[in-house]
Specification:
The protein has 235 residues and is α+β, with helices and mostly antiparallel strands. It contains four helices and eight strands; from the N terminus they run H-E-H-E-E-H-E-H-E-E-E-E. The strands form two sheets. It has a four-stranded antiparallel sheet. It has a four-stranded antiparallel sheet with strand order 5-6-7-8, covered by helices on one side. Strand 5 (184-187) and strand 6 form a beta hairpin. The longest helix is centred in the first third of the chain and has 80 residues, at 2-81.
């Protein structure tokens, strides 16, 4: 009887040994396959990360190129507009038919001297009910500046779309400075506060560009009677 029991135990032991041995082999094989699979995935991830790095670098370069092109376009557009002035609230005559008539009108209201030559004068589209703005193109910038400083009507520089957008974002900073009794004025696409000149960052903050050598410290709170109260006639 004891021999039979011993034989059965040995048989069961061998059975379980071979049974679990086969399971362990399967587990080891699965681990090898999983490791191999993860190895391939890791290789793919490394390759994708490399491709992504290249794409990121190329994207950064493209942004630089686009930014440079935009600046170039703005520069060219600014040069094409540098002899222009926009005049506001100039009464509009229904008989205005040609450029000479507009020349005569603007020459009268702006007290333009005979030596000042106008290359072009035209009305701009407007959604308001009042007179449409007049854009005047002078023969050269010196004549424009002379008229700008002496004009008795409301005038403005003819800025590009991007510069106008930047100036619109800078206005709150200028107005805030003026409320604090600080001298502040817009200069092209920058704002001067006291003796500091600031530009606008991409996230809408001010960045110091330079400290001016001859600061103006008088607070500007009363609008001038000629050019825009927020504008520097020279900029």
């Amino acid at each position: 009887m004891h021999c039979v029991d011993g034989l059965m135990r040995n048989t069961n032991t061998q059975y379980y040994y071979y049974y679990y041995s086969d399971i362990w082999k399967e587990i080891k094989q699965m681990r090898l396959e999983i490791n191999e699979h993860f190895g391939k995935l890791s290789t793919k991830i490394v390759r994708i990360e490399g491709d992504l790095k290249v794409l990121t670098e190329e994207n950064a370069e493209l942004k630089k190129v686009i930014s440079g092109l935009n600046q170039r376009v703005d520069s060219l557009e600014g040069q094409s507009r540098r002899n222009n002035l926009i005049c506001f609230n100039v009464e509009e005559d229904s008989t205005e038919g040609d450029k000479q008539q507009l020349h005569d009108i603007i020459s009268t209201v702006m007290c333009v001297e005979d030596y000042v030559q106008l290359d072009d004068t035209r009305r701009l589209p407007s959604k308001s009910t009042g007179p449409r703005p007049l854009i005047v193109t002078f023969r050269n910038s010196n004549q424009k500046m002379a008229v700008l400083k002496d004009s008795d009507i409301s005038v403005s520089q003819d800025y590009s779309v991007s510069v106008r957008a930047t100036r619109q974002k800078l206005r709150p900073f200028m107005l805030k400075a003026r409320k604090e009794d600080k001298f502040s004025i817009l200069r092209h696409d920058k704002v001067q506060i006291g003796d500091k000149l600031y530009s606008l960052t991409h996230d809408g903050k001010l960045r110091l560009e330079k400290t001016l050598k001859s600061p103006t410290t008088t607070a500007t709170t009363t609008p001038p009677t000629t050019s825009s109260q927020e504008d520097d006639p020279t900029g």
